[in-house]
Amino acid sequence: MYYDFVGFVYLMCMKLRLQSLIGLIWVMGIGVIPVRAQFVLPSQVATEEVVTYQLQEGNGRVVLPLPYARPEILKTNGYTKEVSEGAYLVELVFTQYPKRAEDWRTNYDWLLKERMRSLYSLDSSLFSRKEVRWKYVLQTAPASDPEARTFFHGFIVHWKPGESKSLSPDEPPIDSLMLVHPEMVIWNRILQQPNIELPDSSVWKIFERHPEWKNMLVVMDWTASMYKKGATALRWQQEMLGQGRIGHVVFFNDGNGKPHYQKKVGSTGGLFYVKPDGPEQLLRTMIRVKQGSMGGDAAENDVEALLKSSRSKRAKGFGELVLIADRGSSIRDISLARHLKRPVRILLFNNQEVILGRSGEKRVLRNVWIHPHYLTLASVTGGSIHTEYIEIVDLAEKKAGSIVSVGSFRYEKQENGSFKVIRKARTAN
Questions:
Q1: How do strand 216-221 and strand 321-325 relate by DSSP bridges?
Q2: C-beta of residue 378 within 8 angstroms of C-beta of residue 346
Q3: In this structure, are residues 178 and 185 in contact, taking their beta carbons and an 8 Å threshold?
Q4: Which of 19, 71, 143, 285 is found 20 to 30 A from 293 (Cα to Cα)?
Q5: Residue 230 DSSP SS3
């Protein structure tokens, strides 16, 4: 049985007199917004209690309806750039049901966060502009679940023509981006000071080993586990800009904020193309992709990104097809690998692991794990695996039953060309 989150907002805010719902969630221990969340809920939110909200559309209001107890915005027509630039008040309207805390069934902090994330995906500028005010509107009339389902739930955006002259969300100034995304301070230093030592130079060293790779179509996983690699991404793009080696870059973020249950093999989405004409353009695109990502899923849509990128007219005539991926993530759509008609060069970061030995000394383990899906992808497409220390180039030629060792792991090739792990790493002494 589904319930809306109004009981949570109303009862707890009234009892604890907290203005910030984030503070409420933290204090109650019900849930904490993950550090990797791609947006921040408004810290100043007014709360209004009404019997029934009188819905009005037009005359400076745009209605973005939500389903009962679900986060997806159902309709966005009417929400234009003019509305976005003129927005001064956003109301989130829902029902105060159930009224008793012991009757709660829905994960309220998740629902609130995902509803706000849906709006953020539509227009992230609302969350960064100080002139935009926020309000939760609680409808108190419903006395039952069926009745609550008949009430309006959704966002009301109040706007005035010409109220704001802020830039489009896709083109914010670099300085303001740094405030929202602190890691950009490091990334921007890479742009300004190219001699800074990289925390992980794996991809750079791989490119240096393969000068024969020209006009590359680089498809890069840009989900939460890869954000620390932003400096490296900027470095190789910056250095190779004038060499004609990288012709096209595509980032993918596994759905661009799409809930897990809506992700379908081959049509998950979240692909962003950028013509690498300059490092600042790449930097802005990396932020756009990051803003849309939700994170959380272990599997990524690597093959979809490779298929659609390689078939795109914008990448026509590219040379090598290169995938830069998280070595530990599984591939959601590995079953589609046989549709790829080009060898895939799979580049994996070092991901070194520092552990303590029995005597207390530090030991560094490198290349401790590669998900077997990447060996399968290389095998099926006639491609190859590359890390800072190893190159595996003959997976397609190996017969079924062949064993491939990577560090402490052993992988066995199957009859269909895929690989599976047959021995995991032993515990370090």
A1: parallel
A2: yes
A3: yes
A4: 19
A5: helix
Calculate helix-pair angle for 183-192, 230-240, nearest 10 degrees: 20
Report how far residue 9's alpha carbon sits from residue 18's, in angstroms, rounded to the nearest whole number.
10
What pLDDT, on a 0 to 100 scale, did the predictor assign at position 203?
A: 81
Q: How far is CA 303 from CA 20, 49, 223, 306, in A?
A: 41, 49, 15, 5
Among 272, 190, 193, 197, residue whose Cα is nearest residue 237:
190
Please, which residues bridge with residue 238 across strands?
none
The Cα–Cα gap between 7 and 97 comes to 5
For 23-32, the pLDDT digits (tens) are: 332 233 323 3
Torsion of CA 268, 270, 271, 272, to 10 degrees: 170
* Phi, psi of 308, rounded to the nearest 5 degrees: -70, -35
* pTM, rounded to two decimals: 0.57
CA distance 29 to 9: 14
Residue from 370, 362, 281, 375 nearest 329 by CA: 370
Q: Where does the pLDDT of residue 294 fall: very low under 50, low under 70, confident under 90, or very high at 90 and above? A: low
- For 171-199, the pLDDT digits (tens) are 455 554 554 555 566 666 666 666 666 66
219 strand-pairing partners: 250, 323
364-to-5, 232, 327, 357 alpha-carbon distances in Å? 47, 21, 17, 10
Please state the φ and ψ torsions of residue 132, each to the nearest 5 degrees. Answer: -85, 125
* Burial class of residue 339, CB neighbours in 10 A (0-12, 13-18, 19+): middle
- Residue partners of 28: CB distance under 8 A and separation at least 6: 12
